[in-house]
Amino acid sequence: MTATVVKEAKPPAPVHPDGARSRRARRRGRVIALLFVLPALLLLGALVVYPVLFSVGRSLFDASGSQFVGVDNYTEMFRDPTTLTAVRNTAIWVVVAPTLLTGLGLILAVLVEKIRWATAFKLLLFMPMAVSFLAAGIIFRLAYDEDPDKGVLNAAVVGVHDAFKGTSSYPDARPRDDEGLTRQPDGSYATGADVSPGGTAALGLVGVAPKDLPGDAEPAREAAARTAGADEVRGVVYLDFTPGGGGEPGVVDDRESGLPGMKVEAVRDGETVASTTTAADGSFRFTGLEGGGYMLKLPADNFAPPYEGISWLGPTLVTPAIIGAYLWIWTGFAMVLIGAGLAALPRDALEAARMDGANEWQIFRKITVPLLGPVLTVVFVTLVINVMKVFDLVYIIAPGPVQEDATVLATQMWLVSFGGGNDQGLGSALGVLLLLLVIPAMVFNVRRFRRSQR
């Protein structure tokens, strides 16, 4: 007889109500989180993802958008000299602006810690961030104006130049056609006939408005009436114009003023033997002259045009000038961020270095800067991303004739698409190029943030 072995059935695993409840809670939490994130995802898709995909697709079509041209827009983009100028200028911006801003921000952040009114100083430097790029562009367009009466920078430059080199008071002065003064190749005026010792000369000029005469100018009548000694030459340089009309050309009338400060030279055989400057009544005098004839000469310096300053917005300096405006706006931003990192530095390391005999420069170079390395990197990369997108300042500050010399990728993209080019295929290709240049910096910044959080 065979025994039958009966296996006992295992009882089913007990169902824990708490586990099922937690799974339902997790699912409900995911649904709620998705509902909260959904509006942001929709906005991200509508404002970022869709425009990017549309631009990529549009860059493969011609200007009208009706004919597929493949990568022709990309090849045309790098054959266009204006686009190459935009790429070059963008490279200059990326290298120069973030480097200067990070350096200035670091220096200012360190120095601000050592002054009494640190908060007020930070506020003062940060205030330009509240000014829109449009308003900042208008401000600097006026500041860079070439006319010293409008542009504050050229007013300062001209003031310094004139303080050291002086300037002519009579840039528009000239003789009458029949006055006996002839223009020389170097821009000076000279008498056609020689004047001998004991003689006098009246050199009349026109082209000077009476209101533009120096304040110390006096009537020239008496000076013209003086006689010269045997070994001297006398004369007068005067404005041959009678206010209110009347008077006789070539004759010093009672109401005609002398021209003070005019340089006069006595020339013999092509060499200047004596020189002087006219007095308040325009009179001049050469003494101790040997016998013979002398040509009287009014050097070209008397008629030099006034110094107008620097052409800040010319083809050569327009990009550095716009970068200067950008520095004015963003220096406070860099200073505040670096200052926040500086405040978090371990003070014991700095104090230990001072106790070991390190000076402030050594502490700054070997301790402060290395410890601030992560902060400086984040600031630099953030500024690189911002600089690649700069548009407003370039478009507003650069005058029309030099717009192409100052253009960057953002302005070139707008000009090609909407600013007269009307080629949105090529403009979309420029936009894609700008996106490809920005993405590496953005990825680097995101990774830095994640590593700092971990």
Furnish the topology, listing elements before pairings.
Elements: H1 17-58, H2 72-77, H3 81-112, H4 118-126, H5 133-143, H6 152-165, E1 181-183, E2 189-191, E3 200-205, H7 221-225, E4 233-239, E5 263-268, E6 271-277, E7 283-286, E8 295-298, H8 318-343, H9 347-355, H10 360-371, H11 373-388, H12 392-397, H13 403-406, H14 409-417, H15 424-453
Parallel strand pairs: 3-4
Antiparallel strand pairs: 1-2, 2-8, 4-7, 5-6, 5-8
Helix pairs in contact: 1-15, 3-8, 3-11, 4-8, 9-10, 11-15, 14-15
Outline the structure in words:
The longest helix has 42 residues, at 17-58. The protein is elongated and about 125 Å long. Helix 1 runs antiparallel to helix 15 (424-453), helix 3 (81-112) runs parallel beside helix 8 (318-343) and helix 9 packs antiparallel against helix 10. The protein has a 5-stranded antiparallel β-sheet, with no helix packed on it. It has helices spanning 17-58, 72-77, 81-112, 118-126, 133-143, 152-165, 221-225, 318-343, 347-355, 360-371, 373-388, 392-397, 403-406, 409-417, 424-453, and strands at residues 181-183, 189-191, 200-205, 233-239, 263-268, 271-277, 283-286, 295-298. It is an alpha+beta fold. It has 2 domains: 72-156 and 312-453, MetI-like fold (Orthogonal Bundle); 181-303, Immunoglobulin-like. 51% of the residues lie in helices and 9% in strands. The protein is built from 15 helices and 8 strands.
